[in-house]
Target: Alpha-glycosidase
Amino acid sequence: MLLEAVYHRPKLNWCYAYDGRTIHLRIRTKRDDVTAVSAMTGDKYMWDQSLTYVPMYKLASDEMFDYWECEVVPPYRRLKYGFLLESGKEKYWMTEYDFMKQQPENPDRLFEYPFINPADVFETPAWVKDAVFYQIFPERFANGDPSIDPEGVLPWGGKPERDNFFGGDLQGVIDHIDHLTKLGVNAIYFTPIFAATTNHKYDTEDYMRVDPQFGDIETLKKLVKICHDRGIRVVLDAVFNHSGRTFAPFVDLQKNKEKSRYKDWFYIRKYPITVEDGIPSYDTFAFEPLMPKLNTANPEVKEYLLKAAAYWIQEADIDGWRLDVANEVDHEFWREFRRVVKGIKPDAYILGEIWHESSPWLMGDQFDAVMNYPFTNAVLDFFVDGVGDASHFANAIGKQFSRYPRQANEVTFNLLDSHDTARLLTRCDENKDKMKLAAQFQFTYTGTPCIYYGDEIGMTGSNDPDCRKCMEWDEDKQDQELFSFYQELIALRLKYSALRTGNLKFLSAEAGSNRLVYTREDEESKIIIFMNNDSKPRTLEVDVEESRWEDIRTGETVSAANGALNLKLPAYGCRMLKAK
Model:
């Protein structure tokens, strides 16, 4: 055994309370180096009487490592533990201090989970596990009230630019709510709706007011009520890293300079406030002069923003917040943010926009989840861009899954495109079959999937601003076949809990191959998914224990022959079979 590759530490994603009674343990070993791992567990105050070996299973793998996991329910909510590593006849016991060739005689130097304190348990909203999100960019979804159009509004459907307007508003969403109900989604994520000067509204002018171009608080309340009546949750976008340049405190600062009472609300490097060679004299989002960075450590700034976070939950009954540029805001602010939001609505969804590995924000004291861009990149690399083979893809997915506690994985936000990226169909060079295959992995993977508005009817668009086109409402110009595909995909995900929260295992993901076979399994069902990510028909074969299977789309019975399922799939084809 290569002991240098073995890794474990208490807490984080390696040892955590999944709920008030259950502890999950994980350990890392060199890939294909260890044949069996067991957790040696017991109570430190009655070790001899409670010592138990719990078999661990291989949770995931990547290019270099295997990740093992087991579940322990200690009778007294505390746990002493170590690990037994086996490779053939070779055995090592791992303690907190050392590797040993014999079982430790006492638990003094083992790892410890001291006690499952309820306040320390990372709880995520149960409803998100069953959610299918739909992202709406309000200015481009539908114009429901032309009387509040901004000056210079253009006819619906024109070419999107960074600075033009088409009059989309909240009433437009209300008018087309039947479209979302028919599609089957049960959650909406809105990009910012608060007063701002731009069409995207990420330059907030007033955090306590709906942008007049979109409506008012009464329109928002009406929209949320209609959504709730239809079983649809509503998540809004909070831009707390920076404000807009027309935000009243920044306006005062520009006017009064060093004498402004708001000078400590921002990070000013020098006066006067200017922009030289494209670099503002104050900290901003990127180098955007319209977006001065807020000092969230300032007590007044903190009070104002937390008041806004609470206000829209209390007044409009929204169901959560998506947090823009979340990794550039201090951790202590987000801890207070969580206390405020969960204190008002315990099952509110707190979703951070972070584009990379996000463990520091997913320890139960800040976010419930993050926008899962490592997942996005892995799916686009394999299914869309043809980067890497099936083995490379499975490794990328395994690595990402191993990074977070299970409760965070169950509610992570899995997207394939958004207002910040080119649209999925465009990324696929308008090959619908490739798009569908990517979406089928998205909808059969752990976490909550999100559809970017218009993807379901075949909208295209390259990078911003082209990805922010007006929604196409002419049914003759909508791809109804694609709409039916997404309808069916959503219905299947909502029907089978295994597709949402079941254990995932890759059965076939070979080097040099572009074919995948994996299972999603829980107590209710076992579903095996076959994917041919190739431009030509291919045959896929995998060994199975069950002899009879049912296609969950067609109802067709498929029988295994000699302990194996053998399926021929068309180019970019997919089949999902349930064990009978």
